[in-house]
Design a protein that fits this description.
heterodimer, A: alpha+beta, six-stranded mixed β-barrel, two-stranded antiparallel sheet, 12 strands, B: alpha/beta, Rossmann fold, four-stranded antiparallel β-sheet, 7 helices, binds adenosine-5'-triphosphate, binds magnesium ion
């Protein structure tokens, strides 16, 4: 065994002693490691903070819902070709509603920005959705008071509206909004429900949304506008089958020739998840290359200084050998010294990295999580570099001849 | 027999030139002898001492220490002998400059795995034996030459070695301090230690019981005092 446990702390004491005697030199020695680890930890913790946020937001889109739309969310094809596509129509929604047997809920969705007003209170630039009753489950739009759109509202094209929490509190202050009539642009609608607070997704305040029956929307604002069709699978495991089914229906309705590509998109939350993972994956690669290079440079720096140190301390090595230090004792002493310098840099790097990560995430209003993996990575890498960089100098020291070392001036 | 050297030789090779430092030397030394080695500069005294102390290896012949042929031992085994069997005292002290006296004295114990508390205790005792108990926390540069050599002797003693080897231990000291150091060696001899020391001074050699004189790598004479 290279190191007896009773002895290993002796080497740490020796190393600590050597480091203390040359404080500035030790710090400069480990500067490369320090910078490398700081870089890695900063980006690592920042990405982790972002991940938590982004995945949290994306999961709000619903894992088992797909959207039939004109454009894909992630555009990899030529955009100009995509622009010539037909809009998704209400007729196509009806086909899907009828034939998509794997769907639990199918809703047409169309939206526009409108002005809402009640008496003197005005609320500009509100996203008004035209949809149907099934959207309640798809969009998680549950009323806090009153009700969401019902089948009757849809069939009869009632002029009713369900308001997001923030709209309601802005327009109505103290008053109970249910049953009141508000204006969307020039048309009057009865308020039938107020939604639970939903928060925001990617900076969009979901409590600033209003919902009216799709038929009403189309009658008032015209039916020419393209829609999208939200479809929720009856079983999350069937998502791929559902997508195939939807594709089949759409191709049939649009009479797409077998050889031609789809002229519509079926979008899904995991497209965004994948895109994000790809982006961060690339970023990770870049960071590891940069961090790796500075660790390499840092390692070379440590090896260099350790070689100088071994030469400077030739007499010390001679003395230790003369009184009974074996090769492995000298090897361990210098190896542990190199590891200690390196991991000291790593340790400072971890701390600086966390501070920088906290700062960067703080600017985005996000909080950092102290991650064990980041600490392990920082510590692991710096220790590893210490072993690699320290081995050759330590080996050289251990091989010195005792009598020649004692004579060394 | 504690030490037996048979036809021992050591030749240094400097590029093309061979420098014979010891030539077919034969010496036997018993346990608890007190031997001084004398001879002119360059006669091979230090070369012999380094081989006796297992710091260097001969180029010919055999060195038998405690019935064990040292020539056949590995590096690690030699280190173990240096640690346990031999206490070396150098002319230039060879103390670790950054460590205090106590740490310098306990150093050999680190390499045989003695626990810390026990080590400190033994080092204190050894410092006491050489009359330096009150200087335990002084660094070498805070000590006089004589005191440094006492620290070195305490270090040499700490593992209760079979042999104490001293290469011109008083060479860097004035004669009064030299006498004090020699008193310590006489005490150690009286306490049962085997002592071999190199010196240029007759009055130093007179402390020993036997004098071996070297000349050009040969034993010129070997006499009891
Ligand atoms: N490392 C070496 N390389 C080459 N020659 C050496 C080496 N060490 C000693 N010698 C030579 O060996 C011979 C004996 O040297 P040694 O040091 O044993 O002499 P010494 O008797 O101790 O002398 P002094 O009284 O001056 O210390 C000398 O001629 C010296 O030049
Ligand atoms: Mg000499």
């Amino acid at each position: 065994m290279l190191l007896k446990l009773t002895r290993i702390n002796e080497y740490f004491l020796m190393a600590w002693d050597a480091l203390r005697t040359h404080k500035l030199r030790s710090l400069l020695t480990t500067l490369g490691i320090l910078i490398g680890v700081t870089t890695i930890i900063t980006i690592w913790t920042t990405i982790q903070g972002l991940n938590e946020y982004v995945y949290g937001q994306l999961s709000g889109l619903g894992a088992s819902t797909v959207y039939v739309e004109k454009f894909p969310w992630v555009i990899t094809d030529n955009y100009f070709e995509l622009r010539n596509r037909k809009e998704v129509t209400y007729n196509e929604y009806e086909e899907i509603e009828e034939f998509a047997t794997l769907a639990d809920a199918v809703s047409p969705v169309v939206s526009a920005r409108k002005k809402l007003s009640y008496g003197k209170e005005k609320y500009e630039d509100i996203r008004v959705f035209g949809t149907d009753d099934e959207y309640a489950v798809i969009g998680n739009t549950f009323p806090e008071v009153g009700r969401f759109l019902t089948v009757l509202d849809i069939q009869n094209n009632h002029k009713v509206v369900v308001l997001g929490k923030d709209i309601a509190s802005n327009l109505f202050k103290e008053e109970n909004p249910i049953g009141r009539r508000i204006k969307i642009d020039a048309d009057k609608y009865s308020v039938i429900g107020i939604l639970e607070k939903k928060g925001s997704v990617f900076g969009q305040n979901m409590d600033d949304y209003a919902y009216v029956p799709i038929g009403t929307f189309r009658r008032v604002y015209g039916g020419h506008q393209g829609i999208r069709i939200a479809v929720m699978a009856n079983n999350p495991d069937n998502l791929e089958d559902l997508k195939d089914q939807l594709r089949g229906i759409m191709r049939r309705v649009r009479k797409v020739k077998p050889a031609d590509e789809d002229n519509f998109a079926i979008n899904q939350q995991d497209m965004l998840t994948n895109l994000y993972a790809q982006l961060t994956g690339t970023l990770f690669m870049i960071v590891f290359v940069i961090g790796g290079i500075s660790l390499l440079v840092g390692g070379i720096g440590i090896m260099n200084i350790m070689l100088v140190s071994v030469t400077e301390r030739t007499r010390e090595i001679g003395i230790r050998k003369a009184i009974g230090a074996k090769r492995r004792n000298v090897l361990s002493q210098f190896l542990i010294e190199a590891i200690m310098v390196s991991s000291l840099g790593g340790l400072i790097g971890i701390i600086l990295g966390f501070i920088a990560g906290t700062f960067i995430l703080g600017m985005m209003d996000l909080t950092i999580g102290v991650s064990v993996s980041a600490i392990a990575i920082g510590f692991g890498f710096s220790t590893f570099v210490g072993v690699l960089a320290g081995f050759y100098p330590a080996y050289k020291a251990s091989n010195l001849n005792p009598i020649e070392s004692l004579r060394y001036e | 027999m504690l030490i037996e050297i048979k036809d021992l030789s050591k030749t240094y090779i400097l590029g093309e030139i061979e420098v014979p430092a010891l030539k077919e030397t034969n010496i036997n030394i018993e346990k608890n002898e007190y031997v001084s080695i004398m001879g002119p500069s360059g006669s091979g005294k230090s070369t012999l001492m380094n081989i006796l102390g297992c710091l260097d290896v001969p180029t010919g012949g055999d060195y038998i220490l405690n019935n064990q042929n040292v020539s056949s031992l590995t590096d690690d085994q030699l280190a173990e002998i240096r640690n346990k069997e031999i206490g070396f005292v150098f002319q230039t002290f060879n103390l670790l400059p950054r460590a205090d006296a106590l740490h310098n004295v306990e150093l050999p114990l680190i390499y045989n795995g003695t626990p810390r508390i026990k080590r400190r205790e033994m080092a204190r005792e050894a410092l006491e034996k050489v009359g330096l108990a009150d200087r335990a926390d002084h660094k070498p540069n805070e000590l006089s030459g004589g005191q440094r050599q006492r620290v070195a002797i305490a270090r040499a003693l700490i593992n209760k070695p079979s042999i104490i080897l001293a290469d011109e231990p008083t060479g860097n000291l004035d004669s009064k301090t030299g006498e004090e150091i020699m008193k310590i060696f006489s005490d150690l001899h009286a306490a049962g230690h085997t002592i071999i020391l190199v010196t240029h001074e007759e009055y130093i050699a007179n402390h020993s019981k036997r004098t071996i004189r070297l000349l050009d790598g040969y034993v010129q004479s070997d006499t009891m005092n």
